[in-house]
Design goal:
By secondary structure, this protein is of the alpha/beta class. The protein folds into two domains: about 200 residues, Medium-chain alcohol dehydrogenases, catalytic domain (Quinone Oxidoreductase, Chain A, domain 1, Alpha-Beta Complex), CATH 3.90.180.10; about 140 residues, NAD(P)-binding Rossmann-like Domain (Rossmann fold). It contains eleven helices and 16 strands. Strands 3, 5, 6, 7, 8, 15 and 16 form a seven-stranded mixed sheet that branches. Strand 12, helix 9 and strand 13 form a beta-alpha-beta unit. It starts with a strand and ends with a strand. The mean pLDDT is about 95.
Length: about 350
Amino acid sequence: MKTFVMKAIGQVGFAEKPTPRPGPLDAVVKTTMALICTSDSHTVRGAIGPRQNLTLGHEAVGLVHEVGAEVRGFKPGDRIVVGAITPDWGEPASQSGHSSQSGQALGGWKFANIKDGVFAEYFHVNDADANLALIPSSVPDDAAVYCADMLSTGLMAAENADIPIGGTVAVFALGPIGLMAVAGAKLRGAGLIIGIDNIPKRLELARKFGADATIDFNRQDAVAATMQLTGGAGVDSAIEALGADITFQNAIKVTKPGGTISNVGYHGEGEFVHIPRLDWGVGMAEKTIRTGLCPGGRLRMERLLRLVERGRVDPTVLTTHRFRFDEMAKAFEMMDKKLDGIIKPLILF
């Protein structure tokens, strides 16, 4: 089968690999659509260390091609989505509620990390009954594919932010994850949602997804503007959705004492991130910092699919470009370099 791989740090390209076969509890899926994520770019740049001929990608939908002898909930031909996180549910971390850390730090993140990913004509899914989800007939593939990561991670950002009903929240960086965090904040009942970025299209989309105010940090100081919007009090919750030291620091600065900072950004560079000492109350301001990698599992996917099916959120507006699988190199470069206003590229198989 044809796959798109990380050949080495800084190098990508197509490769031929054998079609995978399922173990007794597993499934093999024929890919129909996939999305490229910025984390794929981080991986290629070496953020998680060297990988050789590793198939990239972790966001896909498809048709079940083959199942193992012990799989009970799925059969060939089923239309499914699989989360970017596919834990082994027998692992202690999964059983204790930390499925994305299954077996080791980030161990539930298998696709394009510790096993081949989904940028292939077929891909393997472990623990299929627990990790696959059937897509409702009313939900198209190009919407369902967002449940794999963008919708799951963005909503997790809002969940981890512990937003009070009617509370205030600032979202730093309005890429796909940040925009879904805005949608999540609205679903969680935030009373004031502030979106912060410098790209007009993303600021516009933030307002579409529920932001009450937006800040262009090229025109205003993001911290000062946020404090002004909250009457000097700061926000109850801040979401860092970029993975940059400056946005992490700013999120801490604008959060009021007793508030929560939810970090979902992928910090792919540098040895440290920094906590501004005085804004942290010299360590005693009761500001909680929560981190997370989106949850895995069928139940998570089913809940997100329900939101899409009921019209609570429409992630498809994030799709700015469409490519055939044989155009993957071009699509990857555009996403990596953020060319032509790209937000999310959809890959058609």
